[in-house]
Design goal:
The complex is a heterodimer of chains A (139) and B (657).
Chain A (H helix, E strand, L loop, with lengths): L8 E6 L3 H10 L8 E6 L7 H9 L4 E6 L10 H18 L6 E5 L5 H18 L3 H5 L2
Helix pairs in contact in A: 1-4
Chain B lengths: L8 E6 L11 H9 L4 E7 L5 H13 L4 E6 L2 H14 L7 E5 L1 H5 L5 H20 L7 E4 L3 E5 L3 H12 L3 E5 L14 E2 L4 E2 H14 L3 E4 L2 E9 L2 E8 L14 H5 L3 E3 L8 E3 L1 E2 L11 E2 L5 H4 L5 H5 L12 E7 L1 E4 L3 E3 L16 E3 H8 L19 E8 L14 H15 L4 E6 L9 H10 L3 E4 L2 E5 L11 E7 L4 E7 L1 E6 L1 E3 L3 H8 L26 E3 L9 H21 L1 E4 L4 E3 L9 H5 L5 E4 L4 E4 L9 H5 L5 E3 L4 H12 L1
Parallel strand pairs in B: 1-2, 1-3, 3-4, 6-7, 6-18, 7-10, 18-29, 20-27, 21-22, 21-27, 22-23
Antiparallel strand pairs in B: 5-30, 8-9, 11-12, 12-17, 13-14, 15-16, 19-28, 24-25, 25-26, 31-34, 32-33
The chains are: A alpha/beta (139), B alpha/beta (657).
């Protein structure tokens, strides 16, 4: 494993819950590592599985998808749709040797602290996994 | 056209005073941004959202021909609309704009200046690469139905309904109970002015009942809402009253003769009502309902007294529930609160000792129309000599509700005053953690109660018990507590204990949230759009929340919010049109094969299949722009305006690399 490896994470966050939760972490000044960069989407149901693969192909070490808790989706069932895709994606990523690099979490607009915890935990997990092997191949 | 014009991107980095610049090296980000492809100009400014800040952008659009704008500042939920407006004022399509969130998601959450600056640079670069692919979009406008639905007929809903109705607009006021009035109708006096609660409420209730613009739907519930802001369709269930509202004169003979006695909900179970009843004498409408769970006609098929005695033949046992559908432009949710049931806190002995009451039960006891006719009595009919009032029962307690319920200190002091008025010789003890007397005239009321000889003891009560340790404790309730000012654990024998119970969200708050598409905050109350700047707005445009359903509130605050929500609804209707966000999908009929996957996932039923042409067709007014169809399309036939694959992939590729 690289020394001092600092994973690069892309976050796909729904604008109603998780993005607002991440904002709340900010307004509450809850600190978390700067490894995550967030893409704001209307709903986790908008996350095209191809975008997740594209992020890994581009070299991201981890992808976090975060949206509303089950039953709270602003569009009723976008988060259910995402959790179905998540299960399929996990199988594919396992086969590609990218297992453990995709995370799906439910973070409400009032859970700023939870968002920070999720990021902290994911950074630690990715540190133990090491860099994205696709990125290594390109070296 | 912008589409073919060479992109000339203007990048603006905000210091936000020291909020951003204190952590992020803004100058460095500007230097970095100015070197990015297609960036015409990169600037920084102390407050981009200020007028001079916005002027910078406008001038660059006019003088440098900037045709795409990136602002790196706070969260888009705060100022996206501001800067889109700036672009529009300068003649640029507002959607040729992208925001990078470097405050809430960078400077406020990362401490290391180097790392924060690097992340800010990445986010700016991603925004630049995204905005390069943006296309002009156009907002559609639709008319607004000039009617408002108010859900909940407590003081908040009453106030909102009257304000809207007085502006000349139609109001549908839906209340679940047989009468409007809510919790305020149950109160005896109100703090700190000691107004008689029903004396100030009843005139407003009557006004609602008689208002030509208000259609009052009591004993009714909202089943579902469809449509979109400005044009909601609402399904309402009117439960069968079994009393014809047009015929009934409210004479009350049926209630008098009905043989079935049921504990009265209005009196917190302390008194009885009949199986045909109005909850309280001043009910609006003054038309009773038959409680089919207890009525002998419905349970055993006997009796029929009410039908026989009714002089106008208004009783109708055959009446059925009705469902009606109304169209409204705006919705105001004012569903109120419930009081905490203290029986789960077993150490207070509520439910075990008959003279341990909740604040609301005591309120009914004080009311002249209540079960004791306004007399403060123990269950054995005697007057209590010593009364303990315990604050913060279920509030400010991490095991139940972390928040302060905001009304308990004041209503407890009001109770002390009422006791002093009715029982001049009684000894009154208030057990408090802190006294919170924050409103107008509240601190003065606290001082007044202090002067009336009420003993305030700072400390939490450990237990209420009937286990006597000395002769003077025999037959009493003993309050065991720690006096934190004296640093002593003590015992105090009393006759009656009043628990200042918490205000909590209604049990069905989650269901209601689902019907209207609202979110709940961590405490279980409805989440407002912004805690300070949009206190009655919600995440759904055209749906407003007011009163205690958003969080514990006293009457003045509830009334203020009812008015605020009414103003929002009136302003929406008077504007006459709503803007439909343009983030809708666009289906390329040359690519679409009509597989129907998008139709299956669409939560709004906005998509249908054109059988003949074998393509999916969108009804734009129903679409809310979630993009589920886009992500489900196997042939990339759908473009999500504002979130196109090109835009998102440009952002993702930048962030991943």
């Amino acid at each position: 494993m690289e020394r001092g490896f600092n994973p690069n994470i892309i976050g796909f966050l729904c604008q109603w819950c998780a993005y607002a939760g991440a904002d709340l972490a900010g307004t509450s000044r809850v600190k978390y590592p700067s490894n995550i960069k967030i893409v704001r989407l209307p709903c986790t149901g908008r996350v095209d599985p191809v975008y997740v693969l594209r992020a890994f192909l581009g070299g991201a070490d981890g992808v976090l998808v975060a949206g509303c808790h089950p039953g709270d989706c602003h569009y009723k069932r976008g988060n259910y749709l995402m959790s179905q895709r998540y299960m399929v994606l996990q199988r594919i990523l396992d086969i590609l040797g990218l297992g453990g690099r995709l995370k799906l979490e439910w973070v409400s607009a009032s859970e700023g602290g939870k968002f920070a915890e999720v990021v902290k935990g994911f950074v630690e997990e990715l540190k133990s996994l090491g860099p994205n092997p696709i990125r290594e191949l390109g070296k | 056209m912008e589409g073919v014009e060479k992109p000339r991107i203007g990048v603006y980095i905000c210091h936000c005073g020291t909020n951003i610049a204190g952590v992020v090296n803004v100058k460095e980000v500007v230097r970095f941004a100015s070197k990015l492809r297609d960036v015409e100009v990169a600037r920084d400014y102390t407050y981009m959202c200020s007028n001079p800040g916005q002027e910078l952008i406008k001038r660059d659009i006019w003088e440098l021909g900037v045709n795409r704008v990136v602002v790196a500042s706070c969260s888009p939920s705060l100022h996206e609309k501001t800067f889109m407006g700036t672009c529009e004022e300068a003649g640029l399509n507002p959607f040729l704009f992208q925001m990078a969130n470097i405050r809430e998601q960078v400077s406020w959450v990362h401490e290391n200046s180097f790392e924060a600056t690097e992340k800010a640079k990445k986010l700016v670069e991603a925004a630049v690469n995204r905005v390069r692919n943006h296309e002009s979009l156009h907002i559609k406008k639709l008319g607004v139905v000039p009617a408002v639905l108010v859900v909940g007929g407590g003081i908040t809903g009453i106030e909102a309904a009257l304000k809207v109705a007085n502006s000349g607009k139609k109001v549908y006021l839906v209340e679940r109970e047989p009468s409007i009035g809510g919790h305020m109708a149950q109160l005896d006096k109100t703090f700190p002015t000691l107004d008689c609660s029903s004396c100030i409420l009843t005139p407003k209730m009557v006004e609602v009942g008689q208002h030509e613009n208000i259609e009052l739907l009591t004993y009714s519930e909202v089943l579902g809402v469809s449509g979109f802001p400005g044009n909601f369709k609402v399904k309402i269930k009117r439960k069968a009253r079994h009393v014809d509202m047009d015929k009934c004169t409210g004479c009350g003979l049926c209630q008098e003769k009905c043989p079935t006695r049921v504990p009265s909900e209005f009196n917190c179970g302390l008194g009885v009502r009949k199986a045909i009843y109005t909850p309280f004498p001043q009910a609006v409408p003054n038309v009773p309902v038959i409680d089919t769970e207890h009525c002998l006609h419905f349970t055993k098929g006997v009796c029929g007294v009410c039908e026989r005695v009714c002089p106008v033949k208004a009783i109708n046992y055959e009446q059925l529930d009705e469902t009606l559908e109304v169209e409204v432009g705006a919705i105001i949710i004012a569903t109120g609160f419930e009081v905490f049931n203290p029986s789960v806190m077993t150490h207070f002995g509520y439910g075990k000792y008959e003279n341990v009451l909740t604040g609301l039960e005591f309120e009914r006891m004080c009311s002249p129309s209540g079960p004791t006719g306004g007399k403060i009595l123990l269950r054995n009919g005697r007057e209590p000599g010593r009364i303990a009032i315990i604050h913060c029962v279920g509030s400010r307690d991490e095991n139940y509700h972390e928040y302060c319920s905001r009304v308990c200190c004041m209503y407890s002091m009001k109770h002390a005053h009422l006791i002093r008025e009715k029982l001049p010789n009684a000894k009154i003890y208030e057990f408090y953690i802190d006294i919170r007397a924050f409103g107008k005239g509240y601190e003065e009321f606290f001082n007044r109660v202090l002067m009336e000889g009420v003993t305030f003891i700072r400390g939490k009560v450990a237990e209420v018990t009937d286990y006597a340790e000395s002769p003077e404790e025999e037959g009493k309730l003993i309050v065991k507590f720690e006096d934190t000012l004296l640093g002593l654990v003590r015992r105090l024998p009393v006759d009656m204990v009043i628990l200042a119970v918490a205000v909590e969200p209604r049990k069905d708050a989650e269901e209601v949230a689902k019907i209207f598409g609202l979110s709940l905050s961590g405490d279980g109350f409805f989440l407002e759009k912004h805690p300070k700047l949009a206190p009655v707005g919600t995440s759904v445009e055209g749906v407003f929340v007011a009163g205690a359903c958003q969080g514990p509130k006293d009457i003045p605050d509830s009334v203020a919010q009812g008015s605020a929500a009414a103003a929002e609804a009136i302003s929406l209707i008077d504007r006459g049109e709503v803007e439909i966000e343009p983030f809708t999908p666009e289906i390329d009929e040359n690519i679409c094969v009509g597989c129907g996957r998008c139709i299956a996932v669409c939560p709004q039923e906005a998509l249908t299949l054109d059988e003949e042409r074998k393509v999916a067709v969108l009804e734009e007014a129903f679409c809310k722009g979630c993009g589920m169809c886009v992500a489900s399309c196997p042939s990339q036939a759908i473009t999500h305006k504002g979130y196109t694959a090109r835009e998102l992939l440009a952002e993702i590729d930048t962030l991943a690399g």
